[in-house]
Amino acid sequence: MAIYTKAILFAGVGYLSFMVSLLFEPVQRNLVFLYRLRLGSKETVYHPESVGFAQNQVAPFWLTMPDGVKLFGWHILPLDVYAAHRQELRGRIATQDSIDSGEFAKRHLEILNEDPDARVIIYYHGNSGCISAMHRPDIYRSLISTSPAHTHLFVVDYRGFGISGGTPSEEALISDGAFTAKTILNRTGVPADRTILIGQSLGTGVIIGAADLLTQSDPKLEFRAIVPIAGFASIEELLSTHKIFGMIPVLAPFKSFEVLHTLLARQLRYKFHSDVRIERFVRNSRKTKVLVVHSFDDEQIPYFHGEKLVDAAIMGALESEADDAGQSSGGHLKRLLEMSEDERHGVFEIVSVGERQAREYVFWQKFGATAEVVEESQVSLTSEVRRISMLAVKWGGHDIVPKSTDVVLAIRNVLYED
């Protein structure tokens, strides 16, 4: 019994010491971003064929941020495009000098520019590691399969990650994310209405923040779609249920002590209020579609976070309608799902696709003075119609859900079809 008591006491002291350490910004930074967890290597980022890509299918490149920090990225060619240029590309030699100077990546951009139907995905990964680490190359291959002939994928490591320079912070990652998206648009020449931003886990906070920032810029920049996958409503809410390594609770033990819980939450330096940002973004946007993806079996970020994001997006859409009408409005996912057809008339059409492996809710919003339900078969790609949807899948957990065929098909749909 004495040994058991000592073990409990030791665990309690260790946990309290850990919580005290969270009051310090460097500890929070390392916990949120895990950027010092060096998975992958300089060899794999400079030579993508070492993680399964065809020789020179990927062009590594550098982007310089406004503050001078350099970020490292990849341009991945779609498979049919690579096959058509395989002999030429395999004859090229990628050296560190040709990559660092930007010379090597030029040919890949020229190939992209030769295709008038090219589409672009800019992908923002989760925390820890780098662009070549773990499951990420498999995710990239899944995403370019949305169209082997036309989908080009760009992925860039955050500052402090991999061989990118600098130190991560919430403000820096969001501003870098926005600048990266604008720079890739300029380099590729592919218009924003044929470009989508996809983020997974930490990357959802980056794309939502970047999209929000860009809709407040002058001129406003709106992409075809944003796709948050396995995202969170906010870091504060995530830490209220999250367990580090699936074992160590962060704020959960303090939920019964409201004052203490609030005090600790206020000390968080990196909050990533994606729910607030996505609501504001949708309210300010008229063009960008939103596809929220989450797995029912995500043990790291519970499914309800995805519901909260789509809920906030719908709230923003309703507010934008109220702005147009000069009145106040409110609503959320549950209320919309419970609406009768007459109540939804002129606001949203709800399409529920129930299957064994996936369920999708689609909300069509039509802007303008005419109040009418927008039939799915009649929706045209104009700035007057906006699509907000949530795809819930039963496979993939947290890390590999972007590899799900249902997810890839949903992304293909927002990128090419509706």
Structural account:
This protein has 17 helices and twelve strands. It has helices spanning 2-21, 25-33, 42-46, 79-84, 86-90, 96-101, 103-113, 136-144, 170-188, 202-215, 235-239, 258-266, 274-284, 304-325, 333-338, 341-344, 405-417; strands spanning 58-64, 70-76, 119-124, 151-156, 195-200, 225-229, 243-244, 248-249, 289-295, 349-354, 358-366, 385-393. The strands form two sheets. It has a ten-stranded mixed sheet, sandwiched between helices. A two-stranded antiparallel ribbon has the order 7-8. A hairpin with a 3-residue loop joins strand 7 (243-244) and strand 8 (248-249). The longest helix is centred in the last third of the chain and has 22 residues, at 304-325. The protein starts with a helix and ends with a helix. The model is unreliable at 326-333, 345-355 and 368-383 (pLDDT under 50).
Strand elements, count = 12
Spatial strand arrangement across the major sheet:
1-2-4-3-5-6-9-12-11-10
Shape assignment: globular
Query: Which consecutive residue ranges, at least 5 long each, have pLDDT under 50?
Result: 326-333, 345-355, 368-383
Helix/strand-derived class?
alpha/beta
Sequence of secondary-structure elements = HHHEEHHHHEHEHEHEHEEHHEHHHEEEH
Average pLDDT works out at 82
Largest sheet: 10 strands, mixed
Helices, by number, come to 17
